Amino acid sequence: MFEKIEMAAPDAILGLNEAFKKDGNPNKINLGVGVYKDATGSTPVMASVKAAEKTILETQTTKSYLPITGSAEYGAVVQGLLFGAGSDIISGKRAVTAHTPGGTGALRVGGEFLKGIRPDASFWVSDPTWANHVGIFEKAGFEVKKYAYYDAASKSLDFEAMKKSLSEIPEGDIVLLHGCCHNPTGVDPDLEQWGQIRDIIIERKILPFVDFAYQGLGNGIEEDSQGMRLIASSVKELVVASSFSKNFGLYNERTGAITFVCDSSSTADKLVSNLKLVIRRNYSNPPSHGGSIVTTIVSDAKLKAQWEAEVKEMRDRIKQMRQGLVAGLKAKGAGADFSFITKQNGMFSFSGLNKDQVQTLREKHSIYIVGSGRINVAGITADNMDVLCSAIAEVL
Ligand code: LMR
Predict the structure, then answer these.
(1) Ligand 1 centre from 217 Cα, in Å?
(2) In sequence order, what E strands does 33-183 have?
(3) pLDDT at 335
(4) What's residue 307's pLDDT?
(5) Residue 202: closest CA among 241, 245, 244, 237
(6) How far is Cα 382 from Cα 361, in angstroms, rounded to an integer?
(7) Rounded to whole angstroms, how far apart are CA atoms 129 and 131?
(8) Has 211 been annotated as catalytic?
């Protein structure tokens, strides 16, 4: 049975890590997968995370199973980060949260759950979107369709086209929105545009599903949630997939969550009873460590402040690298105007580099970026900036 299997293509993003590891060039640069690197080019454990781990190690008394949806404390912490402490979604117990293995696990569980209750719906994603979105929702059984989002010519949001696309989505379908730091473009709607998106969602009676993987890496932990909160405050039903891979640096702890906002607490109770069936049949119940870290940090004022300061440091460094990249490309004589890079949010920059240029960067310069031209700005450092800018200027 197995010998008939054909070789599959490597993953568009994680596959680059494998190729990068094999590359013998000492000056190689990995700007593929969305992992934060500090000024020295490493991805250290955050100090607030280390402190929380110390507490956990000292106080943990058991490794027994967590509940199917994870610990209740973690669920409460996730909802606080999403909706804000005073939110009436929280006080009205309208939301249920399950701890999932990473943001990807959240998307998959959310997709499978929704397929069960909306078998005929289509799933709409932005064009472009994170390479894995389409596969995840197709695997969950949906037909995945695209709504207009990005204008390659102006390197910005094509909001008129987006609104037109959203307005044509049939009632009952599901629309995936990026809460902040759009992956791969780094181009987000402003708050006024979020308001218009919300109005279309309500008018079209479509279900918003927000992928929220970069809270804090755009403009701030509170600031980055504004668009999602605007929608949450005016719809009866919403799904949010959270990831703490980036903002807590918990990549390999697979720490995410799926949150369903319902019209009432009694609907939420019924929903979670069914959600448990989906999770139980997938991975039974979540791993505990990453969730304990997030819970410990956010529940302790001092640790939380330390974490917020660390996230700010990451955010500021990324912004600095954006400016450095624009200045560096100019200095190297790259003819085109790259100032759009400083207007993008979060880890990524949709550089506008085409497939051939991406290929040449990899083959000739050992610089790895995603085939779509997406650069992980969080992987640029003062040390690799010069080599990077020279190489990009050369392939243009
Ligand atoms: C990315 O887009 O690089 C990250 O979300 C990591 C991943 O799993 O692809």
Answers:
(1) 14
(2) 95-101, 122-127, 143-148, 150-151, 156-157, 174-178
(3) 81
(4) 98
(5) 237
(6) 19
(7) 6
(8) yes
